Each structure stands twice: as structure tokens, then as C-alpha cells.
Amino acid sequence: MKLLIAGLIVFLGVHSVRMVAEDWRHRMRTRLGKGTWKGLYSLLALAGLALIAWGFDLARDQPVLLWSPPRGLKHGASLLTLLAFVLLAAAYVPGNAIKARLHHPMVLGVKAWALAHLLTTGMLAHLLLFGSFLVWGVFSYSIARRRDRRDGVHYAAGRLPATLLTVVLGVAAWAVFAFGLHGLLIGIKPFG
Hints:
With 192 residues, this protein is mostly helical. It folds into two domains: 1-62; 65-192, no CATH class. 80% of the residues lie in helices and 0% in strands. Helix 3 (22-32) crosses helix 4 (34-61), helix 5 (73-92) runs antiparallel to helix 7 (105-120) and helix 7 packs antiparallel against helix 8. The longest helix is centred in the N-terminal third of the chain and has 28 residues, at 34-61. The chain is globular, with a radius of gyration of 18 Å. The two termini are 28 Å apart.
């Protein structure tokens, strides 16, 4: 469990620097240079992700059951993960109406993904992993929206073709992951 917690601290800590120390982040980016800053950021994020994966795998070997979720919640979780993939696609497809309306769809996708997994699992390791991401997502989204208002950020209106492409890509990625990659990478088949 210690490796999982350490990974969460490193990964979410790196992803929280802008939320808690925006001025320091700006000074460091200026001092180190944008490329060096991004490189260090990426290395720390990857190290945190590796610790999360390793720690989560070890924690699943000795599960601590906290509660038994009803089986019916799996359907709701499937819909939430589908939404999460569409939101993730919206973060990258330029000119879509989802990003224009929600402004930070990736963070919303993380929240939907985390909530979906909390609904279907009752293990301590799952609570730590997905609960941490959900709490981080709530704070991250709130702070990002306040920062947008403070800085007067305006998002261009989305176009229908880009929005349709976003939905198609999100649904396709969800299907590939849900029906194939989740089982291969995580060892759990959501639909199998």
C-alpha cells in the first residue's frame, strides 16, 4: 500500500503544482526553460504512474474489502467510463462544442472515470486510487474554472463536425479499452 500512496503523492502532486503554486511554477519554467521544465515534469509524472501501477498491483494481491457494491452499479459505471472517454477525446479534438462548453473536459473525464470505478469496487486499494483521483479532479476543475474567470479566458464556439468526431473517437476508444485492453492491461474484463 505504501508504494501506491507514494505514487499517488508524486503523480497527483506534480499535477497539482499549477493549482497550489502557480507563481513558483512560472518562475521555474522561466528559469529552467520550457523544454527542461516539461522534461522534468514528465519524468516525475511517469515515476509516479509507475509507482501507482506497481503499488496497486501489489495491493490487489492482498485485498482489503471495505464494502460489496451492488452488481447493478456496473451498468452505471460503464456509462460513466464511456462519458470519460468522450471527455478525454474532447480535450484533444480542436473546435468541438464539448470543450467550448465545459472548458476542461479532461479533468471532468478523470472525475467520471474515478467515480465509475468507485461505484463498482469496495476494496481499500481502489478507494485510495480512485478516491484520490476524484478528489484531485474536483479541486482541479474548480481552480481551473476560477483561473479562467480571473484571466478572462474565452473558448471559441464548437463546430458540429468536430463535436461529432469527438464523440466517435471517444466511443471507439472506450470500446477498444472496455472490450479488449482493460482485460489485457489491468487483468479485469468489464464485459467478460
